Amino acid sequence: MSDVMAEETLDLAPLHEIIDEFKGQRGVLIQVLQRAQEAYGYLPPEVLQGIAKGLSVPLSQVYGVVTFYAQFYLTRRGKHVIRTCDGTACHVRGAAKVIDAVEKELGITPGETTPDYEFTFEVVYCLGSCGLSPVAVVDEQVVGRLVPEKMVQIIRNLRQK
Ligand code: FES
Asked: pTM here?
């Protein structure tokens, strides 16, 4: 996540730069939202309001797009994102135990982020790598043939980074 994201005050300068780049163009809302999310790690209300104003689009339309597409996040995410598969192939090969291990190691349940914003944990249903089940995607990298111990070790290694 970029360090333009401060705890209390949000630096809106990066957003203004993005908006300036796209101002006056039509049909750029999704692109602007993507760029803003790259800059901030998620889309807080101030950013959405800034986009609505900057592009002269109703705020309701901005929220409509953000809530329609799964790629957009309204809450701050962890520095590391762990997505563990519990689709059929992975489930049969022990995904539940891997998920349990993540929950215990991080102290959160699927859909949550640790209070220190180090980890976000999600459960998904098929990552398209069933041959490697059970599978997780850790920071965009596919990790296959998981066992609980391996998953815990991955988390501990990430913590040290
Ligand atoms: S079911 Fe897990 S990758 Fe397909």
From this structure: 0.78
Residue 120 in contact with ligand 1 by CB distance below 6 A = no
Q: Please state, in angstroms and rounded to a whole number, the distance separating the CA atoms of residues 109 and 50.
A: 32
- CATH number, domain 80-159, options 3.40.30.10, 2.40.50.140, 3.20.20.100, 1.10.10.10: 3.40.30.10
133 CA → ligand 1 middle, Å = 6
- Report whether residue 123 contacts ligand 1, using a CB cutoff of 6 Å: no
What digits encode the pLDDT tens for the residues 24-56? 898 999 999 999 999 998 999 999 999 999 999
Substitution candidate for ligand 1 out of 84, 126, 132, 146 with most atoms within 8 A of CB:
126
Measured at the alpha carbon of residue 115, what is the angle toward residues 15 and 135, in degrees to the nearest 5? 90
